[in-house]
Amino acid sequence: MSLMALDAITKSFGAIHALQGIDLVIDEGEAVGLMGDNGAGKSTLMKIVAGNFPPTAGAIRIEGREVEFHKPIDARDAGIEIVYQDLALCDNLTAGANVFLGRELKKKIGPFRYLDHGAMFERAGALFSELKSETRPRDLVRQMSGGQRQAVAIARTRLSDPKLVLMDEPTAAISVRQVAEVLALIKRLKDTGHAVILVSHRMPDVFEVCDRVAVLRRGTKVADKRIGGTSPEEVTGLITGAIASA
Amino acid sequence: MTNSNRTPRELHDATAQTPQLSHAEIDDSVTSRREMSGLQSALRTQPFWVLVAIIAIGFVMSMISDVFLTERNFFNITRNFAFFGIMALGMSAVICTAGIDLSVGSLMGLSGIVTGMVMQAGYGILPGFLACMATAAVVGLINGVLIAYLRMAPFVVTLGMLAMARSIAMVVSNNKMIYDFGPDQDLFEWIGGESVFGVPNPLWVLAILTLLFWWVWRFSTWGRWVIAIGGNAHAAKLAGIPVERITVSVYMVSSLCAGLAAFLMVGWFGSVTNALGQTYELNVIAASVIGGANLMGGVVYAFGAPIGAALMELIRNSLLLAGIDALWQQFFVGLFLILAVLLEQIRNRGGR
Q: How far B133 CA lies from chain A's nearest CA (Å)?
């Protein structure tokens, strides 16, 4: 049984058909690259899986069970975490505070509950070293490099031990050196049994970390191939429409 | 582009992405920022420098005025700023969410009048207090719902409330002064106007509230979430924080602080008119900003509110004692406001 199966997902915004009958299956520990030109429907599909809005038609199945997401928390509860393109971090808080944002650890004295800063920093530090990132939990996010920010956003997804991590253009806005750091983070996720969907414009990134690549064009899926069975040239052709489908 | 006209973020990104800079160098710069003693981190906060200014002004004043260091003068200074300090604690929370609450002065008038009318009608002090706080809570709730759920601009909503609350205060009071507070008049006037162990009661209230807010900002989930909303409301929402509900509660906290200040102030004056608190919103905002609140949101210091309010009252008192025309008062308050913000910007440019 697959970890997640998207079944004929369709999404319309008024007269605009953003997605038409998308099927996509992802297994445990598998990384799937989701590629396509601007407006192909990648972000819409990700937002549906992350629970930002429901599809117009079609079903999402997690381990065979049909699920309905009304808000992002529903998706998180079903074991899906997302790393947003803008990372959704609070610059004015520490790395540790960001990791635990909305899920703060608390201590109890009688009826009083208060934030357990020590435990949160310690746990965040452990997550960063698990990711082999040098990010320090007590640093303010404002002072961090792009790669460190990615590490914070990724560490946050690991609090709930998710089954599937969605990553939206994680390497779009960072320097070349930091890209290697982020790709290493994605490989770490895979190695620990997490499934990953990587939305990216960058061909080399997808070919380095993904097992499969799915290509969207104008709201329909035109290809779904194993990385070994395709080439960057073919994928480029599929994205632009030079190759109709494969 | 030169370095001087780039934002700290741009500068940082430029540094982080310059290939010549090795990992070790970047790490060094981050480490040196992080490993600071308590004193060093205090040195970086706005309230600390305002406190230094207060001590400096106090030192100069004790030289040039015999009256300044007297117990009586201190009593007056501390009682006068307590009311503004209490309101600034709530205002700081609102400003931390990148909002503003212009309605606090008018709300003082309204909740003061409501307190007066309830007590004048012969109800005791407890019903009077509850009516005062309930009025404040309702006003805060209306502000908060319009801002959080209907996504209206805080400036506009609270400006509208400034006009409406004052008007309702005029209507319900029939434009008359209230000076009869029923059976609990003595207790009511004692709470607002007298002292315990030589410290004015409003200052006790301010001190307790300041400690409470310190705890809230440092250790409560609510405080953490308010700061997160101020930093990036979108991110807070995606992290599952109930942003709308928290925002409403923040405006209610600000209103409740204003209601409490009104209750104490009416007790001190021994009378109330619907003009109570007129233009106080500006002083309260100034006190918050001098105390380190940043109108862009995401920054809050519990000790900033009382320290900012103290500086403003100290300026007023010092000008008076130094024999400078009282007409200059607002000038100096405005000057310190601008200097405080300028100082903060200069420090931030250097520190990041």
A: 24
